[in-house]
Amino acid sequence: MVNEEWDKMTAPEYLKFTRKWIGACHKALKDNGSIYISCTYHNIAEVMIVLKQFDFKINNILVWQKTNAMPNMTKRVFTHSTEFVVWAVKGKKWIFNYGELKKINPETQKDGSLKQMRDVWAMPLVQGKERLRGKDGKALHPTQKPEEMLKRIIVASSNKGDLVLDPFLGSGTTAVVAKKLGRNWIGIEKTKSMLKQHKDDFKELVYKLYDLTPEEIAIVEGKISYSEVHLI
Ligand SMILES: C[S@@+](CC[C@H](N)C(=O)[O-])C[C@H]1O[C@@H](n2cnc3c(N)ncnc32)[C@H](O)[C@@H]1O
């Protein structure tokens, strides 16, 4: 949770909202599909409750250990340096590409051989070339996720040609990584200004903005050519 307009809800409002969107995802998800929900300590409780209410099976709570976490200014609590990603599945025959994950695991055994991917992922907050910035040099999105994180998630639970849906697309990390990995994707993002040109390897990924009211939800269809991303 961050101090953005889209992130200000009372506790009951948040629970209702969580029920609504996780319910919609449950409907949209294939049998045996996976859902990954990025959380902080603020909202993981609601997310877990709602997942259980929809009968999702929780497989892992992945811990993102932020190697460059911001220092704590208040000096009244431990310095927060983690976020969580809850991995839950709808049916019993979920995809888990165990071998592929071993291949992309930066950690290896002492003798250099491949190692199982663990549930604690140490990686920095997005910085450097990967961080999307406006002309003023300011970060375009407050919670841009590391591509490495999305890579592990998408490799783990999908195969080439599968469809990945991100209902909170933000700066588009999921879409960019899904495309790189040969998956189709659909993204939903309600804030127009969040949809920006991606500057990395995806210079051709231009979001064409039509006349959306702030309330309208933009659906970005990733199966088509990158020079023509549709917003509905
Ligand atoms: C945590 S950020 C996602 C960041 C993204 N993973 C990235 O790497 O940039 C959540 C995003 O959801 C969007 N959002 C919030 N409420 C929404 C809603 N009801 N429908 C669609 N998008 C929404 C916000 O504008 C914000 O960009």
Q: Would you mind describing this structure in some detail?
A:
It is a single chain. Helices cover 23% and strands 19% of the residues. It is α/β, with parallel strands linked by helices. It folds into 2 domains: 1-94, Vaccinia Virus protein VP39 (Rossmann fold, 3-Layer(aba) Sandwich), CATH 3.40.50.150; 130-232, no CATH class. The protein has a 4-stranded mixed β-sheet with strand order 1-3-2-4, with helices on both faces. Strands 5-6-7-8 form a 4-stranded mixed β-sheet, with helices on one face. The structure holds S-adenosylmethionine. S-adenosylmethionine binds at residues 6, 141, 143-145, 168, 170-171, 173, 188-191, 194, 217.
Give the end-to-end Cα distance, rounded to a whole number of Å: 27 Å
What class do helices, strands and sheet pairing give?
alpha/beta
> Helical element count?
5
Radius of gyration: 18 Å
Counted up, domains total 2
Give every kind of bound small molecule, once each: S-adenosylmethionine
Average of per-residue pLDDT values: 82
Number of strands: 8
Which spans have pLDDT < 50 for at least 5 consecutive residues?
196-232
Question: What is the H-and-E element order?
Answer: HEHEEHEHEHEEE
Largest sheet composition = 4 strands, mixed
Shape: globular
Beta-strand residue fraction: 15-25%
Q: Helix share of residues?
A: 10-25%
Strand order of the largest sheet: 1-3-2-4
